[in-house]
Amino acid sequence: MYLALKRSDRMTPIKELTQSLRIPFHFAAKILQRLARKGLLVSLKGRAGGFGLGVAPTEITLFHIVEAIDGVEFTRRCVLGLPACSVENPCALHETWREERDRIYKMLVRKSVAEMAREMKNSLHGLAATKDKDFDGYQTNHS
Amino acid sequence: MYLALKRSDRMTPIKELTQSLRIPFHFAAKILQRLARKGLLVSLKGRAGGFGLGVAPTEITLFHIVEAIDGVEFTRRCVLGLPACSVENPCALHETWREERDRIYKMLVRKSVAEMAREMKNSLHGLAATKDKDFDGYQTNHS
DNA sequence: CTAATTTAGGATAAAAGAGTCCGATTATCA
DNA sequence: TGATAATCGGACTCTTTTATCCTAAATTAG
Helical H runs in chain A? Predict the structure, then answer.
């Protein structure tokens, strides 16, 4: 969302993002890295390097992000954890849970990063406004 | 569900249940213990001891079980994990997730153990029928 | 070419969760 | 009253997940 709101042609370094959002550097780094590997973000090393969107924010959905971070196993897995659960041999929640799961799936596919970023514009701005505090984005040794 | 299907006035020892269901003894013990502490089950030590339903199976809902095992934090927690998320300061998914969460909550409250036990009668019987194998309910030292 | 900056990715550490074990306690039966 | 059959609950272990750290590689400015 932060990158979507920036909409600049330059790359955004992890450090800038984590200072604005006040989250740990290495924590964000791993997440950005994973999203970049999936093509949702692009990255560039070295000076003037950083991260940017790899696809238009209207095209990135919550489902893409869930897929990149947690995988899609939840769309198949029996909610009671029974290995033998199937249409032929359904558990007590097979159909009931399929309905809920399908709704959530549709919601994830529907919701874009562009939409979410728009809705959180104010709070993300608010966070960015506090960036001139002494939070350097690194949790430990102030390098 | 197993206890609901038994519907006997005697108590069911953990060992019988775990042999029928082919699950580890100590694993089941901990779960039964927790449900008993919440009053959903009753327990009795000593000879002729074991576990039984503490309430009619029509009165025990999935929500009661989720509450006893995992707690109800999920009904409050922001799906994005933001501590400051609230109606006044909603995250990008605040309302969307509230809808899904409410649906699931209603489903949990609606679904009773009696209903689930009825639906799984066949597979639970099937499991119980295989109990004369060499599975003694304990994972380790065959006491 | 060198120094500075920035991400990449593997290694490690910390935390959480799940599962197991065991001694203590309680109850029943003979 | 002693032997036996059970649960109780804390301690322990194992696995998984989450978070952090560190070195290498890439890129650019000077």
Answer: 2-6, 14-21, 25-37, 62-69, 94-110, 113-119, 121-129
What is the least distance, in Å, from the CA of A32 to any CA of chain B? 16
pLDDT at site A139:
37
Interface of A with B in 54-93 (CB under 8 A): 62, 84, 89-93
**pLDDT tens digit string along B4-63?**
998 788 999 999 999 999 999 999 999 999 999 999 999 999 999 999 999 999 999 999
Domains and CATH numbers, chain A: 1-56+113-132 (1.10.10.10), 61-111 (no CATH)
Quote the ipTM score: 0.85
| Coil, strand or helix at B135 | coil
pLDDT reported for residue A123: 81
